[in-house]
Design goal:
Belongs to the glycosyltransferase 22 family. It is a multi-pass membrane protein. Its EC number is 2.4.1.-. It contains 23 helices and 7 strands. Helix 6 runs antiparallel to helix 7 and helix 11 runs antiparallel to helix 12. It is an alpha/beta fold and about 575 residues long. The strands form 2 sheets. It has a 5-stranded mixed β-sheet. A two-stranded antiparallel ribbon has the order 1-4. It starts with a helix and ends with a strand. It is globular and about 85 Å long.
Length: about 575
């Protein structure tokens, strides 16, 4: 079917010119180049370089990434780490199979690097980047073979440089895993490997994020329509194997027969869920968030539906099927009261594909429908606009990425400094107050720190506790956990005199923080941190040399040590 589409498109765009003059449209090699498409090396190298940069410079965007994934993985490796209520065997909402998949890399890294936990942390990040590179390369090459180099090249540029893809690609989250899977499933679909596309979709839903089933639905249903028997068998076998592995893994860690996949669905759907306890946002949240992470790329992706008649004629049905989850998912998630940036991760590659298709069709808006070789001035201007618009998108994305990295990387960098201050007794206590939600994981806390404790700075919800081996470790159902976000009296360290180190953010506010008492605390390290509330929205969102430093307001992210007499 893909060969037929290529032939039809070639016939529509490359007939002999009615004019006697020679143009590049007359070159016989053009259709051959298009059929051959981009080589594998270009996207592999381009994505590989950018994902390496992402793995080494990415910040932690969401505390759920730390406490629901990095911390349990740390516990599996080192027998210490924070546990959330979702990992209590009473609720069992999180999949240990997903963690074990990443332990494939983390465990050998532990053997290789030993006590250098930071290196293990980055080894896992490199693995995440590798998955992103492979899956997105398949998508780009598939687009090139089916629709030509231009669409594939635009998509590749956006996958590499848009802020959303740059950060999501190396985030340790099930929604990122589903993003990898939708890239791979879409690429396989374009390559007419429908059974494999359905199998990958099952992996993305079961091993990744169960709710992302809506994103995979169009590709899965159409694949079943095209090749029902092979696609059904591939999807069914993959699903049964993964569900069985998940159940056995959950039994091994939770200590009872249960299914984290089913529990999660029941809690959020059948059980009504209480995600609103963790914050709600308005219906425009994802539109604003989409623009922040993709700027004009997101606007063009939204305009894709307006280009429907041209796009359908130019690209056929397959592209519409692949991109349709973008709008299904946005509509569905916008109706949910609890919203998070990471919930959009699965559709990030589709945003890039949709925007690229719109940019490529710019000239078709003005071309005479009876003359596919219209070379009027307005068509030439539209062609000129394609690289201009792409450049604006990429520059804006680069400015956004730089702003986030330079503005908010202090928490990770401050905790890295700890390992250079091991001149204290083993068993030291690191205390964190209101900055608990920016804790970058125990992978960045050296072994001489015996305990990380929360101190009460006014937060009224339930905080993570250390996994309790005495109660049964992963199989425990600690009494201090609940699914109502009700704080436990045991979650705070009440005697601050037990703290050896203190991490806090000092902003320009009319009140003093604990670390302001210089008779008690000495500053070990301090790094600037962008003050979101006092900085102008435009200047904090995009890195503009000189103006970014001049217009924005910064606090100091500090690592403090108790003064010894």
């Amino acid at each position: 079917m893909s060969q037929a589409i290529r032939q039809r498109r070639s016939q529509a765009s490359d007939p002999p010119s009615p004019s006697s003059s020679y143009s590049k449209l007359d070159k016989p090699a053009k259709s051959d180049d298009k059929d051959e498409g981009l080589k594998w090396a270009l996207p592999l190298v381009a994505l590989g370089l950018l994902r390496y940069v992402s793995a080494t410079s990415n910040i932690i965007h969401d505390c759920d990434e730390v406490f629901n994934y990095w911390e349990p993985l740390h516990y599996l490796l080192y027998k210490t780490g924070f546990q959330t209520w979702e990992y209590s065997s009473q609720f069992a909402l999180r999949s240990y199979l997903y963690l074990l998949f990443h332990e494939i890399v983390a465990r050998p890294a532990l053997w290789l690097f030993g006590d250098e936990k930071v290196r293990v942390f980055y080894a896992v990040r490199f693995f995440l980047g590798f998955l992103s590179v492979i899956t997105e390369t398949v998508l780009v090459v598939a687009l090139s073979r089916k629709y030509g180099k231009r669409l594939a090249s635009y998509t590749l540029a956006m996958l590499c440089l848009t802020s959303g893809c740059f950060f999501a690609s190396t985030s340790f989250l099930p929604s990122s895993f589903s993003m990898y899977a939708i890239s791979l499933a879409s690429g396989l679909f374009f390559l007419d490997k429908h059974a494999a596309a359905v199998a990958v979709s099952a992996i993305g839903v079961i091993l990744g994020w169960p709710f992302s089933i809506l994103v995979f639905l169009p590709v899965t249903l159409y694949s079943l329509y095209i090749k029902f028997k092979r696609a059904f068998i591939a999807g069914a076998v993959t699903s049964v194997i993964l569900l069985a592995l998940s159940a056995v893994t959950d039994y091994n860690y939770y200590g009872r027969w249960t299914s984290s996949v089913l529990n999660l669905l029941i809690y959020n759907v059948a059980g009504g869920g209480e995600s609103h306890l963790y914050g709600t946002e308005g219906p425009l949240f994802y539109l604003k968030n989409g623009f922040n992470n993709f700027n004009f790329c997101f606007v063009l992706a939204m305009l894709f539906l307006g280009f429907f008649p041209i796009v359908k004629k130019k690209y056929g049905r397959d592209l519409l099927i692949v991109i349709s989850p973008l709008y299904i998912w946005l509509a569905f998630m916008s109706l949910q009261p609890h919203k998070e940036e990471r919930f959009l991760y699965p559709i990030y590659p589709l945003i890039c594909v949709a925007a690229s298709a719109v940019i490529e069709t710019f000239p078709d808006l003005f071309r005479d429908k009876y003359d596919s070789f219209d070379t009027s001035m307005i068509v030439k201007v539209a062609k000129f606009l394609r690289p201009v618009v792409l450049s604006i998108i990429l520059y804006s994305s680069h400015a956004r990425t730089f702003s986030l990295i330079h503005g908010y990387s202090a928490p990770i960098e401050i905790y890295k400094i700890l390992e250079h201050h091991d001149d204290v007794a083993n068993g030291s206590v690191l205390c964190v107050g209101s900055e608990w939600h920016r804790y970058p994981s125990s992978f960045l806390v050296p072994d001489f720190v015996g305990h990380v404790r929360w101190i009460d700075d006014g937060f009224g919800g339930l905080l993570p506790f250390q996994f309790n081996s005495t109660l049964g470790g992963t199989a425990a159902a600690p009494p201090y956990f609940n699914n109502k976000n009700i704080a436990s009296e045991e979650q705070f360290l009440h005697d601050i005199n037990d703290c050896t180190f203190l991490v806090e953010l000092q902003l320009k506010r009319p009140y003093l923080t604990r670390g302001s008492d210089m008779s008690t605390w000495e500053t070990v390290a301090a790094l600037p941190y962008l003050d979101r509330e006092l900085s102008p929205a435009f200047y904090r969102s995009f890195f503009i040399p000189y103006l970014w430093q001049e217009k924005n307001v910064f606090g100091m992210y500090k690592l403090l040590r108790r003064v010894t007499n």
